[in-house]
Amino acid sequence: MQPAIRYVRAADGVRIAYWALGEGTPLVVMPSTPFSHVQLEWDLPECRDWYQRLMAGRQLVRYDARGFGLSDRNTEDYSLDANILDLEAVAHRLGPGSFALFASGDMGMTAVAFAARHPEQVSHLVLWCSWARRADISQTPHTKTLRALVEMDWETYTETTARLLLGWESRQAQGFAAFYRECTSPDVLRRSVPAVYSWDVTPLLSQVTAPVLVLQRREMPAPTVSVAGDMAAGFQDSQLAVLEGRSPFPWGGDMSACLRAVRDFLGDRDDREPVERPRGRGSVTILFTDMESSTPLTSRLGDEGAQELVRAHNRIVREALQRRRGTEIKHTGDGIMASFASATAALECAVDIQRLVAARNDEADVGFRVRIGLNAGEPVAEESDLFGTAVQLAARIRDHAQAGEILVSNVVRELVAGKGFLFSDRGHAALKGFDEPARIFEVHWQE
Description:
Strand order of the largest sheet: 1-2-4-3-5-6-7-8
Shape: elongated
CATH superfamily of the largest domain: Alpha/Beta hydrolase fold, catalytic domain
CATH architecture of the largest domain: 3-Layer(aba) Sandwich
Distance between the termini: 39 Å
Mean pLDDT: 88
Strand content: 15-25%
Structural class: alpha/beta
Low-confidence stretches: 269-281
Order of helices and strands: EEEHEHEHEHHHHEHEHEHEEHEEEHEHEE
Number of helices: 13
């Protein structure tokens, strides 16, 4: 069900469209202009999933800026102050009290200016792939080329933009280009772009008193990690988190990594996520997954096709982790690292993963396989990550496995003795970084 669209008037009379869902402390998600449409973006499955997961335990508020989506488009004022009026109108409708802000791209500058102007209203500020000075990214070749295309061919411009953002081979690009054409118009872009390109809130960074989380994708061509780092350094209280991938959207690529970073920063816990946290004392069982080599998959399927398999892997692993109460520690590129308080639960999770992958491959045109390694020990916990010999051995055991296999150390086999698992002895293996061979066992998981 789509959220109900409501309207509020900015101080200069411009109507601003918004919706609000859920209960609790508000989190205001600012428009990711020019890709902003509070109604149609709900029809994008990944975007809808992002919103639904983000609002767990909170009230989520989303609005369209002037000129975009369902907000008024017949306005001439696209200055920074005018955009602040839009946010002020939404904030007024929320009533007294503070709220968290999530902003991306150009709207990051509006968020910074608002937070500096209204420090009592902003409890936290999250900036996603944003910048403090538009000139930092407006001189790239892509930006110059796209700006020229707006004047010549609207459809070609939107198609080109979609493929630059999602990948030239993306099967979703055409649909996203159609969505983009609904978000705004060539006339609005002609009026708004010159104003936005002059924005610079660098002097305001030091005036923001709220804690700030700067999130950046490592492989994005613009903004770069350097731009994000420079911006983060200008705040009084900030942290920079660099996530893997190149998608400019938080719901693209590894959405869960972005979600965890945001919720950890806001001090939330999603009850649908595992509740355990990495522990530095006591024994835990470490699980590593790894997809079969992604390079041949990319060569055969293209970037988007291979990425879809990565997303399928991530969904399967996280479903199994939730079922067995495991804690995802981090995404490792082609796999996931997780920890468990129980060795039995960890091994049950590994079996679940292999069976779910096999079931998915039976129904899909293109399949993939996963290798899994487990070890148990007492790792060192630091900043939501785990380190030490126990972790390193688990990773090396995973590397020793073939696609479709589950391999475990002898200590894991001994911990789950009598639990009904069937093992075969693979003997001692020389593992990189370890002086002595490790005894390894294969788990038979087929039903």
